[in-house]
Structures are given as C-alpha cells and as structure tokens.
C-alpha cells in the first residue's frame, strides 16, 4: 500500500492525472517530466517512480500507472525523455466491461515518433 500524503507532492490539481486517489508517486523517487512550461507545475507531473535495479542503479526501471486518455501523451513523453528501451504493460485493459487503460500495443505515429508493437503476449492468469 502507498502511504504518500497528497500534501507532500505540492502540485495543484495533480489528482486529475492519478487513476486512484490513494495511489500516488513517492516524492523522493518520482519521475519529473521536463516541460516547456515552467509556469505550470502540472505539466511536469506523471504518476511514476524510478525503481532500483539489481546492480543498485537507482533509475534502472520505471513503474507507472496504466495511461488514461488524459495522460497518454505524458506517458509517451516520459518514455522518450527517459529513453525507455522496453515497455512492459502488466494490466487488464478492461475490468467488468469498463475500459481501465489506454492500449499501448499499436502501430501509430505520435508527433515525431513512430511506435511499433513488435510482440504482444496474452496471459489469462488470475492467480
């Protein structure tokens, strides 16, 4: 469980970019988006944290929530900014017939970036 106090983030309206009110990024290791707008602290916000790797690298991995319609651009900005060589999505796109997450497996142009899904694996495990 995440016990981050929302007051620790000190970013007005950050709740609009969080899937759940109670699952927040830890301020000490959160990913900060490099934004063109220094006047808008929300433009640098994404609900994501760096995770230490096996060899002690403090930024070996990034954990984030599945992107929503209003955060998918932030997700791809983060992937580009952090030069993510691999993206692994471990989530259900739908739960109880309700869309929970934007699908990342597609072929599409996103601004100047061409995205291609090279492999897609489905595992229907519930354990």
TrEMBL record:
<dbReference type="GO" id="GO:0005829">
    <property type="term" value="C:cytosol"/>
</dbReference>
<dbReference type="InterPro" id="IPR000242">
    <property type="entry name" value="PTP_cat"/>
</dbReference>
<dbReference type="GO" id="GO:0019901">
    <property type="term" value="F:protein kinase binding"/>
</dbReference>
<dbReference type="GO" id="GO:0007165">
    <property type="term" value="P:signal transduction"/>
</dbReference>
<dbReference type="GO" id="GO:0005886">
    <property type="term" value="C:plasma membrane"/>
</dbReference>
<dbReference type="GO" id="GO:0030054">
    <property type="term" value="C:cell junction"/>
</dbReference>
<protein>
    <recommendedName>
        <fullName>protein-tyrosine-phosphatase</fullName>
        <ecNumber>3.1.3.48</ecNumber>
    </recommendedName>
</protein>
<dbReference type="InterPro" id="IPR008356">
    <property type="entry name" value="Tyr_Pase_KIM-con"/>
</dbReference>
<dbReference type="GO" id="GO:0004725">
    <property type="term" value="F:protein tyrosine phosphatase activity"/>
</dbReference>
<keyword id="KW-0378">Hydrolase</keyword>
<dbReference type="InterPro" id="IPR029021">
    <property type="entry name" value="Prot-tyrosine_phosphatase-like"/>
</dbReference>
<feature type="domain" description="Tyrosine-protein phosphatase">
    <location>
        <begin position="12"/>
        <end position="101"/>
    </location>
</feature>
<keyword id="KW-0904">Protein phosphatase</keyword>
<dbReference type="Pfam" id="PF00102">
    <property type="entry name" value="Y_phosphatase"/>
</dbReference>
């Amino acid at each position: 469980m995440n016990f981050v106090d929302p007051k620790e983030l000190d970013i007005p309206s950050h709740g609009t970019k969080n899937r759940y009110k109670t699952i927040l990024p830890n301020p000490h290791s959160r990913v900060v988006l490099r934004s063109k707008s220094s006047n808008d602290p929300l433009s640098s916000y994404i609900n994501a944290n760096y995770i230490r790797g096996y060899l002690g690298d403090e930024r070996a991995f990034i954990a984030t929530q599945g992107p929503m319609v209003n955060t998918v651009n932030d997700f791809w900005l983060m992937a580009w900014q952090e030069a993510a060589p691999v993206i692994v999505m471990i989530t259900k796109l739908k739960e109880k017939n309700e869309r929970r997450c934007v699908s990342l497996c597609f072929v599409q142009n996103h601004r100047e970036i061409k995205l291609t899904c090279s492999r897609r694996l489905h595992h229907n495990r519930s354990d």
